[in-house]
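---------- Forwarded message ----------

FYI, see the (+)-delta-cadinene synthase record below. Original note from H. follows.
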Amino acid sequence: MSSSKLPSSTHGSMSNQKRPTAKFHPSVWGDIFLSSPTTNVDARTKLQHEELKEEVRRMIKVVIDDELLYKLRLIDTIKRLGVSYHFEREIEEVLLNIYEHDYKDDQTVETTLQFRLLRENGLGVPCEWFNKFKDDEGNFNMSLTSDVKGLLELYEASYLRVHGEDILEEALGFTTTHLGLAKAAGTIEYPLSALVSHALYQPIRKGLSRLEARRFISFYQDDASHNKTLLKFAELDFNLLQILHKEELSKISRWKNGLDLATKLPFARDRLVEGYLWILGMYFEPQYSLAREILAKTIVMITLMDDIYDAYGTLEELQLLTNAVQRLDADYINQLPEYMKSFYEPLLDFYREMEEAMIKQGKSYRVKYAKEIFKQVNESYFVEVKWCNENYIPTMEEYMRNAVVSFGYIMATIVSFVGMGDFVTPEIFIWASNNPKITYASSIVGRLMDDVASHKREGTVHRLLNATRENVRSQKKKHVVN
């Protein structure tokens, strides 16, 4: 299709016709991440980091012969300080030793901490362990309430429950109530009181690893019994990682700034920093630097596309963009309105750079999966726009079938593998592309949470959601009447 055949609204940079605009607040970060960190890591600091790491490694290796509680506390502390990624093999050896010896203990702290650490590391342990903490009437013993540390561990363990584990559901209610009472009474000493307060606000299982590590370092240093070597290593390691993360964010920020999106696409969101922080929840380790860069840039592009479809583009324009994205071909650039070119050209450049990087590593096949899932998300956006423009109200089943794709979680899962190491195989991409239950279920939860939080303030898709919700209510009423 030649540009002469385009609708008149698509000529020029942006038309004045009525558009479904949404007013997003500007980035709160400004230009602070455009500059690279000024802190240089010298050779002495690197040497100190390595020496402390080896000291901690020796601590883990000798702990196998120690008593159970000391083993558990050491491993848990290392994990919560955010440095366990250095010692995965050693920690696995200790936990496997605990698992194979089938330790039995009647103490709340030992049992619950053992349960949590083993489950966190994929070792199956039964919830029936906690039956010993119940009385003859099937209720949790009230004597447990005098042990705040034990209550806190039982509370954290309850968040590792799976469907059907009623005893852990009961444990959650019991511990939440009595930790809250203990907190209100003001009888818990610091830093345990701070740990309880934070756990009630956000359990370990729901925390972002880097933020939780930073918080726990502060708690741990105020614990009189802390291990000085372990604390020093955790602080140094956190600082070194933070410098790396700042460098990565600076590089990606400069890339985005070079696109001049604030001028060319002023209606679009700038959420690069928030997206990068979210990525750190997936992987923060140094070896995944390239993977983070690829995923962060993908999130920038998908956010731009989302805002074009949901907050600015007309149906005619979006049909053109959908055709172009489905082909990812430079021949389609001149068929687009000027403002869409500001998105489409960088998109093509991004995939070209990705291909060049993957070809050098002998992993060019990965780009095919990244492109394919991006196209699927693009297609799902257009479906929602068509529904809205045609005043078509989908059933909840129709809406969710499309919405789990448009949410982008499946895309993020697949793209997260692109820049990772050799252990990511073609079979992993095939598995991820077939929408396994774990990503499908996560997409449903995430999609609905996002819709509930934002349906009152955003554009096309959320107006569609409102209509769909009313349709579902209407269907339910008819069912009740019949």
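H. also flagged this: The chain has a mean pLDDT of 89.
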